């Protein structure tokens, strides 16, 4: 614990980093920025990183916001990891709250997460992330697979967690100083499959470098994560599960299968079977949608496993790991 006493929060300075890339999310992006500007107490700075879209950057710079907002273009390779690394470089806060461009935060989100860092062993915290459905929620969609939408899923309990969820997570800057930034070989891009696991890889790497540190889930505050209609479909659901399997395959080679899949083992042996049983119980209670949820649980697991098997084979032949150079985290004026 002695190694972490210098991390005690006291009055930590804070920054909010929001990464964006598409004009199609203009309305929800503005709501996300406005919610960030209304945090109580206010963040020390708000930085919006535009991922290789000069027209969007120009449009944002022309807009008047309630609080000062810096608009910065991504100086690293396209994708969420590169954009976040730019945010780390240009911000100054000792604690960075990363928000998605389609996540509208509660007014007390920053304060709630920073409060977790009063414990010097806590390296970062994630809030509750609630789905904000554009259309009615599909009756077949299981809570256990809300992670496919970047939201808090059934089976995630308050307290220590292996990794954070990117839509609403707070991390000490000291973590990046010790371990480097997000791996640019992982993370979403506008054109690629919805790959991910960059937060998982970072958290595993951080706890290896800082072995007395931990990450926590604090659900008392949160964000509403917009779910467009095209993501409330079987096609997207199975596609996202497949992509997660591919990502986990790459991660298992980078971080080792034990750490990369530790949470998934509990999820598969406890959370999913309990979900199937709940689905069948609902059928007995006269709710046919329970059967559909049980089918979705099985189909999601199968698609994820198939993606993992293929990804493991491909990754073994060509490891998609790209280390983040030290200069990626140097301050940028």
TrEMBL record:
Coiled coil location: none
Highest taxon listed in the record's lineage: Bacteria
Keyword Transmembrane set for record: yes
SUPFAM superfamilies on file: Nucleotide-diphospho-sugar transferases (SSF53448)
Pfam families reported for this sequence: Glycos_transf_2
Domain called Glycosyltransferase 2-like: residue spans: 16-177
Transmembrane segments: 290-310
Keywords: Glycosyltransferase, Membrane, Transferase, Transmembrane, Transmembrane helix
InterPro entries noted in UniProt: Glyco_trans_2-like, Nucleotide-diphossugar_trans
Family (UniProt): Belongs to the glycosyltransferase 2 family.
Alphabetized PANTHER family for the sequence: GALACTOFURANOSYLTRANSFERASE GLFT2 (PTHR43179:SF12), RHAMNOSYLTRANSFERASE WBBL (PTHR43179)
UniProt protein name: Glycosyltransferase 2-like domain-containing protein
Organism: Rhizobium laguerreae
Lineage: Bacteria, Pseudomonadati, Pseudomonadota, Alphaproteobacteria, Hyphomicrobiales
């Amino acid at each position: 614990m002695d190694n972490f006493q210098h991390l005690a929060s006291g009055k930590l300075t804070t920054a909010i980093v929001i990464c964006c890339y598409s004009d199609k999310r203009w309305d929800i992006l503005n709501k996300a920025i406005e919610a960030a500007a209304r945090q109580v107490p206010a963040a020390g700075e708000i930085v919006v990183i535009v991922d290789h879209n000069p027209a969007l950057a120009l449009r944002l710079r022309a807009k008047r916001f309630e609080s000062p907002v810096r608009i910065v273009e991504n100086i690293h390779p396209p994708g969420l990891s590169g954009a976040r690394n730019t945010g780390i470089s240009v911000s100054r806060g000792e604690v960075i709250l990363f928000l998605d461009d389609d996540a509208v935060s509660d007014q007390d989100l920053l304060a709630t997460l920073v409060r977790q860092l009063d414990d010097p062993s806590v390296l970062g915290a994630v809030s509750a992330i609630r789905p904000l459905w554009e259309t009615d929620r599909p009756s077949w969609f299981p809570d256990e697979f809300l992670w496919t939408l970047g939201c808090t899923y059934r089976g995630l309990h308050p307290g220590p967690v292996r990794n954070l969820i990117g839509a609403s997570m707070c991390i000490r800057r000291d973590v990046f100083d010790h371990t480097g930034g997000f791996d640019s070989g992982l993370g979403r891009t506008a054109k690629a499959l919805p790959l991910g696991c960059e937060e998982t890889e970072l958290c595993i790497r951080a706890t290896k470098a800082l072995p007395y540190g931990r990450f926590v889930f604090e659900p008392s505050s949160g964000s509403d994560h917009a779910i467009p209609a095209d993501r409330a479909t079987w096609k997207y659901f199975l596609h996202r599960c497949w992509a997660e399997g591919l990502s986990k395959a790459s991660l298992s080679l980078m971080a080792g299968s034990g750490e990369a899949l530790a949470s998934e083992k509990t999820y598969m042996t406890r959370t999913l079977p309990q979900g199937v049983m709940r689905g069948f119980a609902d059928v007995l209670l006269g709710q046919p949608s329970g059967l559909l949820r049980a089918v979705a649980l099985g189909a999601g697991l199968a698609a994820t496993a198939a993606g993992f098997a293929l990804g493991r084979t491909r990754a073994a032949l060509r490891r998609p790991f790209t280390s983040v150079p030290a200069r990626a985290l140097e301050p940028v004026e």
